[in-house]
């Protein structure tokens, strides 16, 4: 009976351990002033290498005048997992590339098999709001497409051109798509809409 109880506790603690998030690998840490207060904040991306999907966690910390850092956002949805179907499953072709901070704008960059895309967030109205999306990709059969979507103005530009036929004219389209309220980083999941 004692062996059975011991076995139960071992199995139970193994299950508990398996359910915990273990973001044990730092992928990148980027510094910059995100809230325009003159102090250098930072963004940390870590990965749970024990989870078969290899999810990422994005965390934002604001610097305080006393030298400490205040946690602002923690999201495991903003960056797709490295292996959405598990390490032995289907590979989507999307791979986290980098985080950048330029002029107070936080960008999440993702590499595709034949291209890349980027989501841009700015701290405004007390939140990190999605203000821009850009994408460039090839369909693999001769067409290159670029998209530039300024969510602040609502202007979405799409250009396509054939790279295997210089006689075919490129196409250019522009339309206004107002999305209000702007998506917030803490709720953000990429490609939940056709626009970003």
3D structure, described in words:
The chain has 196 residues and is mainly β. The protein has one domain (21-187). Helices cover 9% and strands 47% of the residues. It contains 1 helix and 11 strands. The protein has one helix at residues 2-19, and strands spanning 23-32, 41-48, 56-63, 69-75, 95-102, 105-112, 115-124, 127-138, 143-150, 155-162, 171-176. Strands 5-6-7-8-9-10-11 form a 7-stranded antiparallel beta sheet, with no helix packed on it. The chain is globular. The relative contact order is 0.12.
Overall shape: globular
Distance between the termini: 58 Å
Number of domains: 1
User: What is the radius of gyration computed over CA atoms, rounded to a whole number of angstroms?
Assistant: 21 Å
Helix content, binned percent:
under 10%
How is the main sheet built? Answer: 7 strands, antiparallel
Keywords: Signal
Signal peptide: 1-18
């Amino acid at each position: 009976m004692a062996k059975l109880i011991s076995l139960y506790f071992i199995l139970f603690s193994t299950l508990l351990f398996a359910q915990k998030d273990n973001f044990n690998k730092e992928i990148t840490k980027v510094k910059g002033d995100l809230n325009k207060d003159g102090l250098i904040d930072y963004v940390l991306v870590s990965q749970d290498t024990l989870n078969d999907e290899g999810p990422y966690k994005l965390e934002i910390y604001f610097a305080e005048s006393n030298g400490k850092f205040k946690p602002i956002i923690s999201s495991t949805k903003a960056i797709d997992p490295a292996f959405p179907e598990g390490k032995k499953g289907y590979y989507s072709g999307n791979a986290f590339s980098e985080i950048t901070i330029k002029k107070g704008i936080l960008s999440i960059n993702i590499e595709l098999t034949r291209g890349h895309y980027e989501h841009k967030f700015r701290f405004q109205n007390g939140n990190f709001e999605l203000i821009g999306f850009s994408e460039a990709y090839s369909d693999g059969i001769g067409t290159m497409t670029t998209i530039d979507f300024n969510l602040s103005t609502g202007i979405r530009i799409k250009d396509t051109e054939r790279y295997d036929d210089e006689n075919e004219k490129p196409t250019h389209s522009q339309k206004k798509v107002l999305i209000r309220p702007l998506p917030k980083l803490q709720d953000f999941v990429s490609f939940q809409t056709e626009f970003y």
